[in-house]
Amino acid sequence: MFSLASGSAHSSGCSVDTLPVFAGLKPEAGTFVPRHIGPSADDVASMLATVGAPSLDALMRETLPEAIRATKPMGIGPGWSEVDVLAHLRTLASQNEVMTSLIGQGYYGTVLPAVIQRNILENPAWYTAYTPYQPEISQGRLEALLNFQTMITELTGLDIANASLLDEATAAAEAMAMAHRVAKSKATAFFVDAECHPQTLAVLKTRAEPLGIALVVGCPQTDLVAADVFGALFQYPGTTGTVADPRTAIDALHAAGAIAVMAADPLALTVLASPGELGADIAIGSTQRFGVPMGFGGPHAAYMAVRDAWKRNLPGRLVGVSVDSQGRPAYRLALQTREQHIRREKATSNICTAQVLLAVIAGMYAVYHGPDGLAAIAKRVHGLTTALAAGLKALGVTVETEHFFDTLTVQVGAGAADILARARSAGINLRNAGHGRLGISLDETTTPATIVAVWGAFCTEQSRVEAMAKTLAPAPSALPASLVRQSAFLTQPVFRSCQSETDMLRYLRRLADKDLALDRTMIPLGSCTMKLNATVEMLPITWPGFCDMHPFAPIEQTKGYQALFADLEQWLCAISGYDAVSFQPNSGAQGEYAGLLAISAYHRANGQTNRTVCLIPASAHGTNPASAQMAGMKVVVVKCDAGGNIDLEDMRAKVATHAQDLSAVMITYPSTHGVFEESMREICDLVHQAGGQVYVDGANMNAQVGLARPADYGGDVSHFNLHKTFCIPHGGGGPGMGPIGVRAHLKPFLPGNPAAEGTAQGTTLAVSAAPYGSASILPISWAYIRLMGDDGLQRATEVAILNANYIVSRLAGAYPVLYRGAKGRVAHECILDLRPIKDSVGVTVDDMAKRLVDYGFHAPTVSFPVAGTFMIEPTESEGKAELDRFCDAMLAMREEVRAIEAGKLTAEHSALRHAPHTGSMVTATDWHYAYTRQEASFPPGVNPSRKYWPTVSRIDNAHGDRNLVCSCPDIAEWME
Ligand SMILES: *Cc1c(COP(=O)(O)O)cnc(C)c1O
After folding, report:
1. β-strand 282-286 against 302-306: which pairing, if any?
2. Which residue has the CA at smallest separation from atom 5 of ligand 1?
């Protein structure tokens, strides 16, 4: 076999097929496909026999309605070898020019400690984990998130922080929406400090409009009329670098019953008085500079912290401490009722996937450096900035910023372009703030040489700069004396216990060992598509050419990224049938929101402002109604029939009722019930005839790629969860990417980003802080599609569907399968009904989920979309042996239930009720259970040499919610 290992030969993303000279010497096309797809050809044959289908193709014909089938190949070409894909990505990375970016504006250079890079970011034990809905197998990442929350409450001086939000700008929008809900003031305007980052302002505008909130942008000292607003946002330090004291403004807001929000830089907070001390009610910001590379905009973890009074209004996930059945402390997600799938149309936020992996990294950065280390970094950065300012002043440059932390704004008038150009030729990007003003932000990576180079951009007299370099030294502090931080922070033991690399390494390993991720077992979570995140796909994300790019770098420096986006857009269009893609939304839910905004803008452009009703079937994912709500739409729920399908009669009736004001219908396809509804085309036609638009929730693309295209059967817009179908790992609950595909008529309404030159796509304002969302993880999806090619992608879909039907064949005799398609098949997932078991013997769906842990499995999706059920999605990546291991465990559990049915013991006395069993439980001297220790920990099929031991037993959620503790114990409690 020959391998064409040269990347440059196909640098424009064209297929190697087009290279005439090498025809016949193609790389080993498709060699990755059998690595990605679990079942071998023999396994597929035997599984087809089990499900009773003559061939994969025949199974597909029994599963997908003929009316929606794609009629031609996608045209992506053959799959490439891993070697070729890496070579090509290396070329793309090299086409990005990595400069020293001193642009600031919310994004800074940072040093990711190698021990964290290797053992978290590059470690599948962390990045392939799922959102910790099953806390007993998630204690490691829950502890890491608790560290993050504690770090945030300590730095901000507020009482309670969530476990991350998507980015600083959307966090600001969430804070505004929250302030609107909780403020005593009945005003309808929100004040935004002119010192806020422009991308934050852009996202606030987007969010404010459908909510009917008016924004007032101005200077807090002169323009804020507290009585006229329900809240205000201050940036601290401001986007120009200035550090202003917000206390007078905050007092005025409070006197008027309004809420004060501060967007604060966590590194600055180590040396500046905290938002809590200044009286702020809410603090938000980005933790990017705590070790997370800029990544051309993301992913990074944003944070939100609030006063105790509003803990129940906090959007996003919150980790809390509770106790397990043995009375030991244990972590779990607190206040689960805030989860959006329960709030549905009453939801106030659509946040689902957040930024867990990045929050874990930022939290560990704080653990590793400790409070003294963080303060030392901050002081060094500040010292360098004072030196920079002094030098610039000595050179006669007008430095506008008097009080600053790490950022200066200078006024250079007509000389700006020359200075920018000189800086660039020295490898440095400065911020062009317009009107002759330049911004310079220093960071952890800045060296004295960087400062000398910046001086050189302002002064062509080489000898003068050289002379100044010799005396480069910090000038006196430029922090306002009244705002210098006096309070201690990060006093908890965890922030003092891992300052050697040995300790850190072992701490990370210890936490990872507590968790079940894809590196140990299948995670059969329906709707979440926990498939292989191949190592080769992950390698490029830490290459400097991708991860060290500033999101607002001049466009000519980002050619590699632009080429990657162009390929990916073309492929996603080929896969979906759409005409254009926006990469801005950084989660599926943000994609929904962006898509619905596009639909609204389209109706408005057609003069149909009355079209505000959004029809959503009862089976929809909770983010659908939440996003519709946020987009200013009125949600009308459409019923489902007994077969789980959208009730066509009800749909017809509601379309007719709302014909005049129908904006959109949101349909998940195949449905969250795991079936391809026959009526999909008919529903789309119906909605179009009434003048509405069709939003197809693309979370289930893993059941369609290569077989059906949403745009062909009626979709106008869809989001693609790249962290589901397209192999971006879930990271324990983020990052993700939710780009949207649209048909041509919606293209003008895709999100733009006024903060980035040359990238504005459409007329709709920004939905994310960065123009391309979490750009640095897009190489993962690029690699996946390029490795698989047309045939591999289609085969993946077919095997995903085969695997689900195989599970149905093996388990349907033991558990009723709730919904099936017209010919008795399920799509890529299936729902098992456990309610009859609950009704007959009292064993709950939770008992079953927890008992699966004893068998070494992560539970399927519990009680979504139907309460009391398991939704199982095996994906194509799981081989037959693993599927059998899972089915055997499910069948063995059914036998445990049968013993209760036969009256041998009660549910209360069964292993099901007391699961999961920890090592300390089964080795305790006293054993008072009605089953043996052996039965507890080694139920049938569990190989003792592969045993997974949970570290906590069943967690008491109610206890944790009654006694809410959401940060690490402090030193005093520790010493008790
Ligand atoms: C996962 C999912 C979403 C939300 O995606 P996030 O990336 O978590 O915001 C929406 N709809 C369906 C059907 C999903 O499965």
Report:
1. antiparallel
2. 588
Q: Which residues contact 973 (CB under 8 A, 6 or more apart)?
A: none
Helix/strand/coil for 927: coil
Helix or strand holding residue 602 (H, E): helix 588-605
Look at residues 408, 527, 444 and name the one whose alpha carbon lies nearest to residue 873: 527
DSSP state of 118: I
Name the residue with tokens 């590793």. Answer: 368
* Rounded Cα distance, 670 and 674, in Å: 6
Q: What secondary structure does DSSP assign to 236-278, as a single string?
A: ES-TTSB----HHHHHHHHHTT-EEEEEE-TTGGGTB--HHHH
Residue nearest atom 14 in ligand 1 by C-alpha distance:
699
Q: Across residues 322-336, what is the average pLDDT?
A: 90
Supply the pLDDT for residue 858: 97
Amino acid occupying residue 29: A
Strand, coil or helix: 344 = helix
Res 757 pLDDT > 90:
no
Domains of the chain with CATH codes: 544-755+762-777 (3.40.640.10)
Q: Is 81 in the pocket of ligand 1 (CB under 6 A)?
A: no
Q: Determine whether the shortest distance from the Cβ of 706 to ligand 1 is under 6 A.
A: no
Q: How far apart are CA 200 and CA 965, in angstroms?
A: 31
From residue 164, how far is each of 20, 208, 306, 315, 319 by CA, in Å?
51, 22, 13, 10, 10
- Compute, in angstroms, the gap from residue 236 CA to the centroid of ligand 1: 33
Answer yes or no: is the C-beta of 736 below 6 A from any ligand 1 atom: yes
Q: How many CA atoms lie within 13 A of 352 on its CB side?
A: 32
Tell me which residue has its CA closest to atom 15 in ligand 1: 527
> How do residues 664-677 score in pLDDT, each as one tens digit?
999 999 999 999 99
